[in-house]
From TrEMBL, chain A:
CDD domains tied to this protein: TM_PBP2
Membrane topology: Multi-pass membrane protein
InterPro entries, per the entry: MetI-like (IPR000515), MetI-like_sf (IPR035906)
Annotated compartments: Cell membrane; Membrane
Domain ABC transmembrane type-1: 94-309
Protein's UniProt name: Sugar ABC transporter permease
Segment forming the signal sequence: none
Family, similarity comment: Belongs to the binding-protein-dependent transport system permease family.
Organism, as annotated: Aquibacillus rhizosphaerae
Principal location: membrane
Transport among keywords: yes
Cited Pfam families: BPD_transp_1
From TrEMBL, chain B:
Keywords: Cell membrane, Membrane, Transmembrane, Transmembrane helix, Transport
Family: Belongs to the binding-protein-dependent transport system permease family.
InterPro entries: MetI-like (IPR000515), MetI-like_sf (IPR035906)
Organism (species): Aquibacillus rhizosphaerae
PANTHER family for the chain: ABC TRANSPORTER PERMEASE PROTEIN MG189-RELATED-RELATED, POLYGALACTURONAN_RHAMNOGALACTURONAN TRANSPORT SYSTEM PERMEASE PROTEIN YTCP
Protein name: Carbohydrate ABC transporter permease
Length: 322, 296
């Protein structure tokens, strides 16, 4: 319709059609008023608890005082951001966040792929189901439970790990109070909780692979490793890329609950990340505007990373996530 | 001859491959579950055994003293009660609004659904962050109320999208024939759509339930009254912060059991409800029901 050359008469027709379309739209909206009623509470929820906080981000440009509110508080421009970027804490948090992110991408991310490739090769379905049942369990445990179990196992006196060390003649290690052990502990807990669960999507994608491909490869003499490498892995490539994008988008979502539970005075220099910093500065010290600025910066970086990762995926002829 | 040989070698290689594959996966399964068994076993151990045994999995002598001890005050009963109320009430609350929203947005004849969808997905990529959300929770009068654990997380965008894609796959002819019979949208939803979507609805309900049972951060953020703490906060208090205060004033007359077993028993109590629903979870999610949702 829009491609027809515009002459006087066709323009009239166009306006006519537009009017009709609009009337039709209204009719449809009226017809579906019950549907709008259905989604109304949901929409209200998203407006109040998701979009209102986004509006609240403007306090990062103010010197927000709770009793003055957003409308009454003084504007200070980019002062809080300047303070953040010049603070010695900034580089500490930035580095810590980046390192945990790198551990997530390079250490954690490949593990569920590897496990699902291995599970896919299992031919006894009871064994496969049994292993799946076991490795999914930790995902449903809270971080408090995961960290608590780690604590009782790793504690210096009477923890099972140190008891084993003692029997083997090794020196005891104070895992919980030693900054060097924070990062290994963090990533091992992430693997323990999420590696099994992470296989679900890959396994579902693998079931879509045409079995004839394997037959053909077998005829050509490909062994099991080569079948994995040349058939299974390429078949789930797009799922891998989508999940990698989502993971990169979560760049700064390293699990506030998790890190906050592990954080203590002796590992702060390696464990403090943006979220824990926001919590301490904002809610424990009452610096609302400054901590909102820190959170805002984090959110923007995350958003840029998603867009960037998505563009990158499209460059490689993958679909991306939107 | 050449051919047979190579095939034989292939078979042999395949056997070795299988052996190591099964071995490694078996080990993986055992390692994943071993910490839970250790905790469960130790929680039933006697103080003598805790002191003498280096790596305890199954105690030789069962003792319930740790459990008797933690249940001798109402601290843990109160925490479990709070968690149960939040879990049951929260799941019903969240499911009600998630299903309504998901169904409305699943209908292709809803004008504006694309925009609304986008705005909901956008909240998964960007949000106001902790402090502005805290201020909104405060402004809406939820501070120090159990509603603070529920209302600010009413709809999980991801869960809603899974439900929506499930509803979208229901043949439209079903709804249309009901419409011709004069049914309105609510009765279509409750009489036709929900009954045939029960597996998906059960799955999402279980996800919500597990999330509510595990809620911890919101309680720390929004509840200052320790009497309203759910069991996860209590667990952190006892194990991670190792502050025995919560069990002080226990009306326990015997010699208190070793601290370790008390911690273990608290972990077990906080974990068991999730393990009880786990078989039901397992039944549904393994079907790959989630795959279609990856792309929103």
């Amino acid at each position: 319709m829009e491609h027809t050359p515009i002459t006087d008469s066709s323009r009239d027709v166009n306006i006519d059609i537009k009017k009709k379309l609009r009337a039709q739209k209204w009719k449809q909206i009226k017809k579906n008023k019950l549907l709008y009623l259905m989604i109304l509470p949901g929409i209200l929820y998203f407006i109040v608890y998701k979009y209102l906080p986004m509006y609240g981000l403007i306090i990062s440009f103010q010197d927000y005082k709770p009793y003055l509110g957003i409308s009454g508080s003084e504007w200070v421009g980019l002062e809080h951001f300047k303070r953040l970027f010049t603070s010695p804490d900034f580089w500490m948090i930035f580095k810590n966040t980046l390192i945990l992110f790198a551990l997530q991408i390079f250490v954690f991310f490949p593990i569920p792929i590897l496990i699902s490739l291995m599970l896919n090769e299992v031919r006894h379905s009871f064994f496969k189901r049994g292993i799946q049942t076991l490795v999914y369990i930790p995902h449903f445990m809270s971080w408090v439970v995961i960290v608590s179990i780690s604590y009782v196992m790793l504690t210096l006196d009477g923890g099972i790990i140190n008891s084993i060390f003692e029997v083997l003649g090794f020196e005891k290690v104070n895992f919980l109070m030693n900054a060097d052990w924070f990062r290994p502990m963090y990533i091992i807990q992430v693997i323990w909780r999420e590696a099994g669960w992470g296989t679900i999507i890959f396994l579902a994608a693998i079931t879509a692979v045409d079995p004839q491909l394997y037959e053909a490869a077998k005829m050509d003499g490909a062994n099991r490793f080569r079948q994995m490498w040349h058939i299974t892995l390429p078949a789930i490539r797009s799922v891998i890329i989508v999940l990698l994008i989502l993971k990169i988008g979560d760049v700064l979502e390293l699990g506030f609950e998790h890190v906050y539970l592990l954080l203590n005075a002796s590992n702060r220099e390696v464990a403090e990340i943006f979220d824990t910093y926001v919590y301490v500065a904002g809610l424990q010290q009452g610096q609302f505007s400054y901590s909102t600025a820190v959170g805002f910066f984090k959110g923007i970086v995350g958003l840029i990373m998603v867009i960037f990762a998505n563009k990158l995926a499209k460059r490689f002829n993958e679909e991306g996530i939107y | 001859m050449q051919k047979i040989k190579s095939r034989k070698r292939g078979l042999k290689g395949s056997n070795i491959f299988d052996f190591f594959n099964y071995l490694l996966l078996g080990l993986l399964g055992i390692i994943t579950i071993l910490p839970f068994i250790h905790v469960l076993g130790s929680s039933f151990a006697t103080s003598a055994e805790v002191a003498n045994t280096k790596f305890l999995l199954f105690p030789t002598e069962f003792s319930l003293s740790a459990y008797r001890y933690i249940f001798s005050t109402d601290t843990i009963f109160r925490a479990l009660g709070v968690s149960a109320v939040v879990t049951i009430g929260g799941t019903i609350w969240s499911m009600f609004f998630s299903v309504l929203t998901a169904y409305g947005l699943s209908r292709r004849d809803l004008v504006g659904r694309r925009v609304i969808n986008f705005l909901i997905i956008f909240t998964m990529l960007f949000n106001g962050g902790m402090i502005p959300t805290f201020l909104v929770v405060q402004e809406t009068g939820l501070m120090n109320s159990l509603w603070a654990l529920v209302i600010p997380v009413t709809i999980n965008a991801f869960n809603m999208i899974i439900l929506r894609s499930f509803f979208m796959n229901i043949p439209q002819s079903l709804e249309e024939s009901a419409k011709i019979d004069g049914a309105h949208d609510f009765s279509i939803l409750f009489r036709i759509v929900i009954p045939i979507s029960l597996p998906a609805i059960a799955t999402i309900a279980l996800f919500y339930a597990v999330t509510y049972w595990n809620t911890y951060m919101h309680a720390i953020l929004y509840l200052s009254d320790s009497a309203k703490w759910p069991v996860q906060v209590l667990l952190r208090q006892i194990v991670v912060l190792a502050s025995g205060i919560n069990y002080d004033g226990a009306s326990y007359t015997d010699v208190p059991p070793p601290e370790v077993t008390v911690k273990m028993a608290t972990i077990v109590v906080a974990t068991v409800p999730v393990l009880l629903v786990y078989p039901f979870l397992q039944k549904y999610f393994a079907k790959g029901a989630l795959l279609g949702s990856v792309k929103g």
